[in-house]
Amino acid sequence: MILVVTVQNSDKTLSRKQRLQEKQRRQLSVVDTVDKAEAKVRKAESELAVAVAEAVQVFGDEKSASEGLDMAPEAIRRFLRMAQEETAKTEEPAEEA
């Protein structure tokens, strides 16, 4: 008894143009996914910056907030800068009006 096995390779049946289009489609899909994830990260960082700024007010100063939040002083300062920049962005249009 002779057993014949056929293997289909979809890459061989697609033309070069089709393979390129599929590759580009996958690349664009990945880029879109990364862009969406980056937007979520920016939003989360912005929300964290506001929360850290509030924590500094509640704790009294950056050092106490750093200790209370178990966060490096450099991170506290970074988030405070972000919160200040965000506040400045939201106030600019109001000043122009």
How would you describe this structure to a colleague?
This protein has 97 residues and is mainly alpha-helical. It has one domain. The protein has four helices and no strands. Helix 2 packs across helix 4 (73-96). The model has no long low-confidence stretch (mean pLDDT 89).
Which labels suit this protein?
4 helices; 0% strand; elongated; 97 residues; mainly alpha
At a glance:
Helices cover about 80% and strands about 0% of the residues. The chain is mostly helical and about 100 residues long.
In whole angstroms, the N-to-C terminal distance is: 87 Å
The number of E-state strands comes to 0
Low-confidence parts: none
Helix and strand element order: HHHH
Rg from alpha-carbon coordinates: 26 Å
Tell me the major beta sheet.
none
Number of helices: 4
Secondary structure layout plus pairing:
Elements: H1 10-13, H2 16-59, H3 62-69, H4 73-96
Helix pairs in contact: 2-3, 2-4, 3-4
